[in-house]
Design brief:
Largest sheet of chain A: 3 strands, antiparallel
Structural class of chain A: alpha+beta
CATH architecture of the largest domain in chain B: 3-Layer(aba) Sandwich
Strand order of the largest sheet of chain A: 1-2-3
Distance between the termini of chain A: 57 Å
Number of domains of chain B: 2
Strand content of chain B: 5-15%
Shape of chain B: globular
Order of helices and strands of chain B: EHHEHHEHEHEHEHEEHHEEHEEHHHEH
CATH class of the largest domain in chain B: Alpha Beta
Number of strands of chain B: 13
Number of strands of chain A: 5
Number of helices of chain A: 9
Shape of chain A: globular
CATH superfamily of the largest domain in chain B: Type I PLP-dependent aspartate aminotransferase-like (Major domain)
Oligomer: heterodimer
Helix content of chain A: 40-55%
Chain lengths: ~200, ~400
């Protein structure tokens, strides 16, 4: 291997891109215990994660993605991270944990391509729902406002709590409305709603 | 790693023609400032004026109508900004006319300049294109009026290769008393360009798209038509573009023009055959694809294909690992989140825009290289689709 550091991404990303681990090849016959899908084709990234769970531990994690090299690599590396992990812990995985495992990613790639953790949370929630443990679902009522960046009303609420008072600031923090922009009205309404709740 | 290298990104830029390289090597000796009065300077200047003559002939213009610039983007900026900036003379250049019409599929150096001008309070209309990337004439006729100062429509599109009917567009613009500019960066050197036949008042092009050096280009500005400089500070180019003349670039461009003039027809005929080979090869080997661009009025070297369910950046990078250089309209490649504005404007939809790959060939492309691409590509697409959430194998 020569000049690997001249490639677009790190060696770890490259390795996972060339040889992605745990790709779900036979979706029809895969008996999952939980499944989650996030992202939107419009935005160029969509992620699906399916898990098997035994004794509250993830025993298998398979995935598919419509996305770029970093989307493929980040989901691949995440699938390796979570196999053998307790669902409680897996539920708390965030993009920065995946990025740490990958070495590094360009900033703009983190926002758009690291969706694996969100798909995983959805899969875990699906598992909880299927096994009748809905009390474990933390964000079950969150409603997606921005389809492209998968930003929920809860994210907007949190952003307003943290001090965002304009659409621009909200957008900067959550990245909502940065792709197709269709959610702008909805997001602005929510923003005003929460500002009303939390005060100026 | 893969030893084989195939460059198929000629619309991004081209390698220097070996003879251009040679002429530039000799050009390094001509160090004097071509604007100096002494013999050193006059000798260089003389050469640069001979090149100007040659370039003028190449596009059917007069030498005084050729302005050397730093490339296509500068030429485009010059034209758009001079007709809109009231503070810098725009108001007087086109009395009573303040609007510009351009298209939705222009190069960023037009689109983003136009958006900037809109943010400064100017009125700019973006004419729609049809599915093949051709300007929607009905929409164009709706937009044009006595208020139109300038119409700027690209000659050939860099992403999908579609060639516009510039002659008709210019004629309509003139009928309404508007000026007409065409960004011919992808056309010059690939198809015959003649400013008289086209009826263009302004025309931009760049040397590095036809085997010349980067950083040098031309703005053709018809004699007697309004002009206002973009860069002030010197008497070069008759006061129309300040800055010490780029002697080496101009010499390289002159050589490139001379060579392409002689080689163009042969290259284009060969490229058209290669494109047909590539297109039918892809169509035969890979299911669920969409060919983008006009079926006939298209650059011979450019083929743009959308692979359903396969994201473009992933495809590009898997091909790159096999030594093949391509480009994509996927958002990921551009650093923005939006996929190709050109493909979106043709109405293919975001998924196919994200899944688009551009193959652009040139004078050094061989049949063998096309076959290598055809050998590697099917497996890459199959692999990307295998991982895809949106490809089930029976996509329409």
């Amino acid at each position: 291997m020569s000049n690997t550091n001249m490639w677009v991404y790190t060696d770890i990303v490259k390795e996972h891109f060339i040889n992605p681990k745990n790709v779900l090849e036979d979706e029809e016959h895969y008996q999952d215990d939980g499944k989650g899908i996030v992202g939107n084709i419009k935005c160029g990234d969509q992620m699906m994660v399916a898990i098997k769970v035994s004794n509250d531990t993830i025993t298998d994690c398979k995935w598919k993605t419509y996305g770029c090299a970093s989307a493929i690599a980040s989901t691949s590396v995440m699938s390796e991270m979570v196999i053998g992990m307790s669902i409680d812990k897996a539920y708390t995985i965030r993009p920065e944990d995946i990025v740490k495992e990958l070495g590094e990613l360009p900033a703009h790639k983190i926002h758009c391509s690291v969706l694996g953790d969100r798909a995983l949370r959805k899969a875990i929630e699906d598992y909880y729902n299927r096994s009748g443990r809905t009390d474990k679902v933390v964000r079950e009522k969150a409603k997606i406002i921005c389809q492209c960046m998968n930003v929920t009303d809860r994210d907007i609420e949190e952003a307003v709590r943290k001090g965002d008072r304009t659409y621009e600031k909200l957008q900067y923090r959550t990245k909502l409305g940065t792709v197709c922009g269709q959610c702008k009205d909805k997001a602005e309404n929510l923003l005003h709603e929460y500002i009303h709740l939390f005060g100026d | 790693m893969n030893a084989r290298k195939v460059y198929m990104d000629y619309n991004a830029t081209t390698p220097l023609h070996p003879e251009v390289k040679e002429s530039m090597r000799r050009g390094f000796e001509l160090y004097a400032n071509p604007s100096s009065m002494h013999e050193f300077g006059r000798t260089v200047r003389n050469q640069l004026e001979l090149v100007r003559q040659r370039i003028a002939e190449f596009i059917g213009a007069g030498p005084e109508e050729i302005i050397y610039t730093g490339g296509g983007s500068e030429s485009n900026n010059t034209v758009l900004k001079m007709l809109t900036c009231a503070l810098c003379g725009g108001a007087e250049l086109s009395p009573g006319r303040a609007e510009i019409i351009t298209s939705a599929i222009e190069h960023p150096s037009i689109i983003q300049t136009a958006q900037h001008l809109v943010s400064m309070g100017n009125t700019i209309h973006f004419v729609k294109v049809d599915r093949n990337g051709k300007v929607d004439m009905n929409h164009f006729l709706e937009l044009i009026s006595e208020r139109t100062a300038l119409v700027s429509i690209m000659y050939a599109n860099n992403e999908i290769g579609t060639i516009q009917d510039i002659q008709s567009l210019a004629e309509i613009a003139h009928r309404y008393g508007a000026l007409f500019h065409t960004d011919a960066v992808q056309a010059v050197g690939k198809i015959p360009v003649d400013v008289e036949r086209l009826g263009a008042d302004y025309l931009s092009f760049s040397a590095h798209k036809f085997y010349g050096p980067k950083g040098i280009g031309v703005l053709y500005a018809r004699k007697g038509k309004p002009y206002y400089p973009f860069i002030h500070g010197g008497h070069q180019e008759g006061g129309r573009r300040a800055g010490t003349m780029n002697s080496l670039g101009i010499i390289g461009m002159g050589s490139a023009v001379e060579l392409i003039k002689a080689e163009m027809q042969e290259i284009e005929e060969r490229l058209l055959r290669l494109k047909q080979r590539l297109r039918s090869g892809i169509t035969e080997r890979i299911p669920d694809i969409t060919i983008n661009g006009h079926p006939e009025d298209s650059l011979a070297n450019t083929l743009n294909v959308s692979f359903h369910g396969a994201e473009g950046e992933a495809v590009l990078l898997y091909m790159d690992l096999q030594g093949i250089a391509l480009s994509t309209g996927s958002a990921c490649s551009s650093g923005s989140l939006e996929p190709s504005h050109v493909l979106l404007a043709t109405g293919v939809g975001p998924e196919l825009a994200h899944g688009s790959i551009r193959f652009s060939m040139g004078r050094e492309t061989t049949e063998d290289e096309v076959d290598y691409v055809l050998e590697v590509l099917p497996a890459v697409i199959k692999n990307v689709r295998k991982m895809s959430t949106v490809y089930s194998g029976e996509c329409k």
